[in-house]
Write a structure and sequence with these properties.
Number of domains: 2
Number of helices: 7
Largest sheet: none
Number of strands: 0
Strand content: under 5%
Shape: elongated
Length: 203
């Protein structure tokens, strides 16, 4: 009996070592050629495997985080069987859950029936739509080129309007202002001459 247990232990350790070698090969590539196995105590083999495993966890942080999650949430990696109800729910709670959801069963069944009754589109229509993809891509490229051209035309239009405003409208405004200033100056001189003439006639 003890010999059978030892054989089982050694076989398990050999399988674990083979898996660990496979993981190391995937991560690090081809390593050294496997040495000829020598019989050694099971405790030493297990200790060597644990040491190599922890080195692997230290080098690959993702594996370390997965081990932490496995310790805190083991059901994520080994979910309970769906054939058995959760052990943390009493039969009354399970019954209440089923009764509460019973009203949605007919609606769900009707939705599934309507989905199954939906006709499948004609494959020729899908093929014709797929054949239009190159043309649609060409139209999209044309639209992008037109948008670029419109942006350039918009910039050129803004430059033309700005130049017209600066050299046309502003220049005309300055000319009119200069003319008005000269006219006002002449009017002042005329009024001054008239006053002088009136004063001379009064004497």
């Amino acid at each position: 009996m003890e010999s059978t247990l030892d054989d089982t232990t050694l076989s398990t350790i050999s399988l674990l070592e083979a898996r660990l070698r496979r993981v190391e090969h995937i991560l690090y590539g081809q390593g050294d050629a496997p040495a000829i196995p020598h019989p050694e105590p099971a405790a030493s083999s297990l200790e060597s495997l644990e040491r190599r495993f922890y080195v692997l966890l230290g080098n690959i942080k993702v594996y370390g985080e997965l081990m932490k999650i496995h310790k805190t949430q083991p059901t994520l990696f080994h979910p309970p069987s769906t054939d058995q109800p959760p052990i943390d729910l009493s039969p009354e709670a399970i019954r209440a859950t089923v009764i509460a959801a019973a009203a949605s069963f007919p609606a769900t069944a009707s939705s599934l029936t309507s989905v199954s009754d939906c006709p499948i589109p004609d494959p020729s229509q899908s093929a014709s739509l797929a054949a239009l993809i190159p043309r649609m891509r060409g139209i999209e490229a044309t639209q992008l080129a037109q948008e670029v051209e419109m942006a350039e035309l918009r910039m050129r239009s803004e430059a033309v309007i700005s130049s017209w405003y600066e050299h046309g409208v502003l220049s005309a405004s300055r000319f009119v202002a200069d003319v008005e200033g000269q006219v006002e100056k002449v009017e002042r001189q005329v009024r001054r001459a008239e006053k002088q003439q009136e004063a001379a006639e009064a004497l």
